[in-house]
Every structure is written in structure tokens, then in C-alpha cells.
Amino acid sequence: MKTAALALLALLVAAAAHADVVRVKVDDMIHPVSDEYLGRAIDQAAAQKADAVLIELRTPGGLETSMRAIVEKIIKSPVPVIIWVGPSGSRAASAGFFILEAADVAAMAPGTNTGAAHPVIIGQKLDDVMKMKLQNDAAAFIRSIAQRRGRNVKAAESGVREAKSFTEDEALANKLIEVVAANVPSLLKWADGKTVKRFDGTTTVLHVANKPVVNYDMSLKERVLSKLMDPNIIFILLAIGALALYAEFNHPGAILPGVVGAIAVVLAVIALNLLPTRYASFALILVAFILFALEAKYVSYGILGAGGILCMVLGAMMLVDGPIPEMRVHFLTAISVSVTIGLIAIFLMTLVVRAYKNRVATGSEGMIGEIGFARTSVAQDGKVFVHGELWNATARTSIAEGARVRVRAIEGLRVIVEQAD
Fold first, then answer.
1. Are 185 and 210 in contact (CB under 8 A)?
2. Looking at residue 418, what DSSP letter applies?
3. Which of 238, 231, 228 is nearest to 323 (CA)?
4. Which of 116, 195, 312, 395 has the CA that lies 20 to 30 A from 91?
5. DSSP secondary structure, 306-352, as one string
6. What distance in Å separates the CA atoms of residue 400 and residue 397, rounded to the nearest whole number?
7. Residue 256, pLDDT score
8. pLDDT by residue (tens digit) across 74-125?
9. pLDDT digits 0-9 by tens, 236-295
10. Domains of the chain
11. Is there a contact between 86 and 109 (Cβ–Cβ < 8 Å)?
């Protein structure tokens, strides 16, 4: 067993020694999970002394904090980083533009675009001075990157200040990238033997042609979190979780709704903790469920239910304060989920209200709450006339003969009563 383990370890070491190009695929928004994934890939490439890290980039943009963290990792990488925007039809917009410009070698596939990197702050009304500060900060950041990489500083800055977008040919003509490559093999063939200037001023020669390209995949945790980072999925989980808990509270002991609801809500909260979340929107969602309950209890001709749906839609739209449309809950998702959840919640609450109002009116249970008269004084023992019958009765406090009594419980052939007045 020990010999087999050592042999397996030797094979893994040998495979790592020949993994000269580590390929990473980023086909998502830029967020903390992307940052963690790229950071691990760069560290792994450095540990196995790979010749290069190849990042296949396809993103609409994302969070500035995560983008800056990724740029920092790229410029500090001891292994040269090649970024290729591809395949055809892809883009590296907004935050992706900064990441592309941070690479040692920037490349794009035919039919791709990049740029449109003007800073965006959603949900905040900023004065002109603050807007200028944000714009100048982002412009200075892209200038420093482009200058150190030997690229066109003016063109790079226009992608920030003017939100200008570039096709692959325009980016090449403006010296924002080094090459247009249709695929990874042609890109590595072009890059082989090229001397690149690192961010610290040193130079290195790339040896990447005909080298093994090994994919570096996300861990299971990163894959799960990456899927959960979609605000639309978060809102659906949150709505389903709230509805399931709502059902559990109305039917204690059902267990399954409680378990499903708790898991869904916890997953949603974990994902929201990694995104720019407006927690005040939870108040709107809570108000929505209160209005759904009131709609089931009172006759409002749909006004309370419509108000609840409106509150839930507003809560969904305000839930995630993302800088790009892909990082916000879509209106179609908000309205469809809110209407569905609202109708189900009203239906469930209506069943609860009807069950409460229509209590058992037959058998011994039907006597609970009935009013009668004490035929004798009642304490530990006595007689009461209730429901057209004479019953043995017990009371916790003494009740005088002739007093009105109310049935509180039934124990066999004896009723437990209390004075009604």
C-alpha cells in the first residue's frame, strides 16, 4: 500500500513537472470566487514552475474590489500571465478590461470586444465632485497598468473615461493587445520565443509552443459558490426558503418545509455576504409576507395581495447593488417569482385561517367553549347543564350554583369548566 502511494505521488509530481502551461477559464462575472480561483491557479503555476498561466477570459465585468485583487495577483505573479479573450463572440467588458490590460501578453479572438470600463455606482446619488473622484481613480489605475505594460495609455484611458469599447482589430490597432489569435494553439505558437517585459521591469522569454496545456479547474466549493453568485438564483432561493419556513410555522411538525427553507435561506445569505447587498430590502420582503397573510384574513378584494407582490418585487430589485446588469435581479425574475410566491402564500394562509375559524362542532370536542349553568356548586365536584345534557364537572376555582360556566376541556365523562362571566 505504501509503495503504491509513493508511485502515485511520483506520477503526480511527474505530471506537474510537465504541465508547462496552466490554463484557467473565467466565464462568469468578476466576484470574490473568481478572485480566489485565479489566485489559487497562479500559486499552483508558480509552485510547479510552469512556463506560463493562460487565462481564457469571458466576462461582462463585475465588482471593482475583486477586479483590483485579481490585477494585483497577475502583476505579482512570478509566472508570465497570458490572457486571451475568447472564443469568438466573447467579451472582456468593464472589470474584464482592467484584467486584460494587466496581462504580460494580451490577446483576443476574432469577433470579440473589450472596454466599456467607466466606473458605475448603482443606487447612490453622487455629486459631481465624487463622480469625478471615482472616474479619476479608475483612469489613473488603467494608466498605470497600460504604461507599465507598454501599451497605449491614451486609448486605455478612453475605455474608462468615455466608456469606449474596442473590437479585436481596434484593440490591436490601438496597441491595447499584442495579437489576435483564433485559438489557443495559434496563440501559444505566436507567443513562443517572444520576450515580454514583466511588471517589475525585468524581461523573460516565453517557451510555450508545443508544451502541454493543463486545465486548472475550480474546486467543488468554488463551483457551487460561483453558481450561487447569480442574484437571480439568490432571490429564488430566498423566496423559496421564506415560503417553506412560512409553511412550517403554519404547520408545525411537518419538518420537510423547515429543513428545505433553512437550507435555502442559509445558501442565499452566504452568497449575499459576498455581494454588495442592500439588507434593507429584507424589510420589504418581510412586509410582503405580512400583507399576504392579511389578504388571506381580510376581504380586501386583492389590494393587500397586490401590495405584497409590489413590496416583494421592489425588494428583489433592490436586493443586490451590482455595477452591471448581470449582477442585479432581473425584472422578469422579480415579477414572476413574486407573483407565484404571493399566490402560494395567500393560498396556504387561507387554509390556515379557514381551519382556525371552522373548529370542530361535533362530538365531545364540539362542546369546548360551550356555555352552560351550574346545577350545583362546583369545585372538585359538581353538576353542570351544558349542550342539553347534565355533566359531572370540576373547576379550578369554586363556582356558585346557578352561575354561567364555560367548558374548557373534557376528561372522559367529566368536563372541566370555568366561570363564564
1. no
2. E
3. 231
4. 195
5. HHHHHHHHHHHHHHB--SSGGGS--HHHHHHHHHHHHHHHHHHHHHH
6. 10
7. 86
8. 999 999 999 999 999 999 999 999 999 999 999 999 999 999 888 766 555 5
9. 999 999 888 888 877 766 788 889 999 999 999 999 988 888 888 889 988 998 888 888
10. 2-219 (3.90.226.10), 230-357 (no CATH), 364-419 (2.40.50.140)
11. yes
Task: Return the C-alpha cell found at 38.
Answer: 485565479
Grouping H, G, I as helix, E, B as strand and the rest as coil, residue 217 is coil
Write out pLDDT tens, residues 18-46: 558 999 999 999 999 999 999 999 999 99
Whole-angstrom distance, CA of residue 281 vs CA of residue 140: 35
Q: Where are the beta strands (DSSP E) in 206-329?
A: 213-215
Q: Which three cell numbers stand for residue 140?
A: 489613473
User: Which of these, 270, 315, 320, lies nearest to 29 by C-alpha position?
Assistant: 320
**Helix (H), strand (E), coil (C) string for 126-189:** CCHHHHHHHHHHHHHHHHHHHHHCCCCHHHHHHHHHCCCEEEHHHHHHCCCCCEECCCHHHHHH
In this structure, are residues 374 and 403 in contact, taking their beta carbons and an 8 Å threshold?
Answer: yes
Radius of gyration of the chain (CA): 34
What's the predicted TM-score (pTM) here? Answer: 0.75
Is the model's pLDDT at 51 over the cut of 70? yes
CA distance 236 to 239: 5
